[in-house]
Structure prediction request, 186 residues.
Amino acid sequence: MEHVVHDRGGWPDDTPIDRAEHELAEWELLMDALVGTLGARGVMNVDELRRGIEEMPPVSYEAASYYERWLFSVEHVLTEKGVLAPGEIDARVSA
Amino acid sequence: MTFGIGDRVRVSGRRHAGHHRTPGYLKDRRGTVVRVHATFPNPETRAYGASGLPEQRLYLVDFAASEVWDTDGIDGRVLADIFEHWLEDSA
Prediction:
């Protein structure tokens, strides 16, 4: 059985699950609000969000936090839809 | 094929390259329908910008943990929501 990176059930692992809670950073709250708004406006749905996360390179997926995965997916899917130009966010951040 | 509560089912073992919600660890495993939820848009097409129609019926399926994992004799259940088009009759 070939598993993609998000389909984790049954993977051998000796490490206990980290159940620790943490305070959400401001950008994480904004990320959640953004995805809610994109859904409500019909721009991007939750299945596209999930699919975009699944399309992360496995190394990036493993290194990313929960909302970093959302950020990757939103940028990926909105670029695919032409809402964002390729590299648009990087260009704005470095401007 | 439509299923009812108590029906024995088997999760299809077919490969599906794109987005789907059927966990790999349940493919080819047998379980019992314990709830018929409702119908929902199909995430397999909705994930690529389509409507997800026609809606697909979603079931809650109960698997013995020993059917799914190597449980070393520990009893347990695995409950998962599985769409109808991933289920086969296993009566």
